[in-house]
Structures are given as C-alpha cells and as structure tokens.
Amino acid sequence: IACELLTVTWSTIAVNKLAETAAAPATSVMQLLSRDYELEWIGCNVNFMIGLLGFAACLVTFACTSFGPAKHFVSLFVAASFCLMMSIINDGVAKGDGGEFSFAGNFAGLLIRYLQLLLTKILKAPGMCSVASVLLFTASAVYAVKLLRHQAHTDDEQ
C-alpha cells in the first residue's frame, strides 16, 4: 500500500506542476516527460508496479497460510501471474516511446534510474522529511536483513 500511496503522491505533484507552471514547447509527450518530469513519471511507474507485485506476493503468503491443500495451486497460479506481470512490465519499459527513446531497458533498469534520480534530488536539496525517509528506509532494510539472517539460522538449527 505504501508504494501505491507514493504513486498517488508522484502523480498528484506532476499534475499540479503541469497545471501551475508554463512548460517549454515539446515535440512529444515523451520529450516533455523526460525533460521536465522524469522523476515524477518514473516514480509513478516504479511505485505502482512494485505495489502490484507486492500485492501478488501478499496473495501467495495468504494462500500459504489459509488454503490448506489448495495453497500449492493458488501459490503457483499467483506466481505464474507474477511472472507474466514482470514480462509485460519489461516489454512496456523496453518499448519506451515506440521509437528510439526509452527510460530503461527493463524494470530493473527503471528502478535503478528511479533511485539515481531520487538520491540526486535529495542530495541537491536535503529536506528534513527526505533525509528522514532515507534513514527510515535504511533502518527498515537493515532490520529486514537481520530478520532474514535470524530466520535462516533458526531453520538451520531445526
């Protein structure tokens, strides 16, 4: 849900900027986006896709804990859908504007570009909330790694 909320935030800011500021003429929407709204555009897409994929992962977790013998069928079906979603996403990212321009070659490249743009923005003008966000995300990632290591150690003992 957090990624979907970020999607709404990025898209709202982009629409507001489009309505409130004068943009230089562009030969295409893709040119306008890449020139003036790259972070917002990529931020919307990356967060929306991560949110969808996260939702699919939650469905697998729910199936494994709730469906008894049917958990295998449901988990495999959701995993197949997950793979198809990744394929569709990668194809769409690679096609870009249908011509020669693309923000990245696949979703991983788009995610890396998003992180580059976001960190550049934060480093150029570090506000209290953006710095707090980086620190909290880092703490979350460290905690997740510790949790996974602890779980792996616990599984080894059993």
Structure at a glance:
With 158 residues, this protein is mostly helical.
Structure commentary:
With 158 residues, the protein is mainly alpha-helical. It is 82% helix and 0% strand. The protein contains 6 helices and no strands. The longest helix is centred in the last third of the chain and has 30 residues, at 128-157. It is globular. The model has no long low-confidence stretch (mean pLDDT 90).
Short key terms for the protein model shown above:
158 residues; mainly alpha
Q: How many helices?
A: 6
The coarse overall form would be globular
Structural class: mainly alpha
Average pLDDT taken over every residue: 90
* Run of helices and strands: HHHHHH
Helix content bin: over 70%
Roughly how many Å is the radius of gyration?
19 Å
List the helices and strands and how they pair.
Elements: H1 2-20, H2 29-36, H3 38-66, H4 71-95, H5 107-124, H6 128-157
Helix pairs in contact: 1-3, 2-3, 3-4, 3-5
